[in-house]
Amino acid sequence: MKASVLIVEDEIVVSMELESYIESLGLEVVGTATNAKDAYFLAINNKPLIILMDIRIKGEMDGIDVSSKILNEINTSIIYITAFCDEETVERAIKTNPSAYLIKPFNKKELYASLKMALFNYERNKENINTKKGDLVLDDEFSFDTQDLQLIYEGEYLHLTKRELQLLVLLIKSKNSIVSVYEIENEIWPDKAPNESTRRALVSRLRSKMKYKFIETIPSTGYRININSIN
């Protein structure tokens, strides 16, 4: 199977030139995007091995912001392509651990080397992720990293929203014991009036992401996370 690449570049001519060159190397371009919204959608749905990411793109998020969001959900290698190399931009980019940072205009040799490095980093990250297991083992599929607060499913990080994570942490702190509805609402929505439908929707989303395991509803009382296999 060909290695897959997503191109995020708001200059159409540049995007077409990149696509032609990448395909000439025997790689597969799975999509092109000009804005953050499309970049995120294409990345999550196609799971490319490499993303060529322009930093100044259309949309509410720039290339660094959307890269960070994408990396929270999938394993991929980022190559930034940009005309900007100011200290603030570079420092922000570094935090996403990119494989390369190419300053426009760059030549094909530089791009080729960056693609090779990105493929290497992808494989290395894949090995690290596939062996990743949290210190709290929920069962043979799920574990939880109590230091980094990451839910792990079959060796891969599972993306949770802020409130989903808050709920999971609250349940885990009281594992195998009931957490009352009051505790949940007071912890997650401290400044808002209780809303049963909102709470139920949150629990349902988390339960779905955990394949309907672990979380038990205690009628008229609250919820409990049942964990029998703990390291």
Task: Walk me through this protein's architecture.
It contains eight helices and twelve strands. The chain has helices spanning 12-24, 36-46, 63-71, 87-94, 108-130, 162-173, 181-188, 196-209; strands at 4-8, 28-33, 50-54, 77-82, 100-103, 136-137, 142-145, 150-153, 156-158, 178-180, 215-218, 222-225. The chain folds into two domains: 4-130, Response regulator (Rossmann fold, 3-Layer(aba) Sandwich); 136-225, Orthogonal Bundle (Arc Repressor Mutant, subunit A), CATH 1.10.10. The protein is α/β, with parallel strands linked by helices and 231 residues long.
**Overall average pLDDT:** 89
Order of helices and strands: EHEHEHEHEHEEEEHEHHEE
CATH top level label of the largest domain: Alpha Beta
- End-to-end separation in angstroms reads 38 Å
Q: In percent, how much strand structure appears in the residues?
A: 15-25%
* Tally of helical segments: 8
Strand order of the largest sheet: 2-1-3-4-5
Rg over alpha carbons: 21 Å
Tally of extended strands? 12
